Amino acid sequence: MMDKKFDDIREDFTNLLLELQRYIVEDLEKKQDFLYTQLLQAKENLPEKVRESMNDFVVPNFFINVHNAVTDEHWDENDSSADPA
Predict the structure, then answer these.
(1) Which of 27, 54, 71, 79 is deepest in the core (most CB within 10 A)?
(2) N- to C-terminal Cα separation, the chain
(3) Which sequence spans correspond to the domains of the chain?
(4) What pTM was estimated for this model as a whole?
């Protein structure tokens, strides 16, 4: 009986952590969209020679790397032993 209660508490806590992670990722994605737009606008304001020398993938790749680091796509949400950090 005690093990069942402990398991229920652990499952509830894990679910809360997963929900918190989803909120954090959603918030970061909103901020990412805003920053992405700002960076693209800033890139357009650069002198033409600088803008032409920039790789078109520099800005998107930056955000892809940030997104992957934040979401840690290797973490399996169903694995309660996984470490989200």
Answers:
(1) 71
(2) 31
(3) 15-71
(4) 0.42
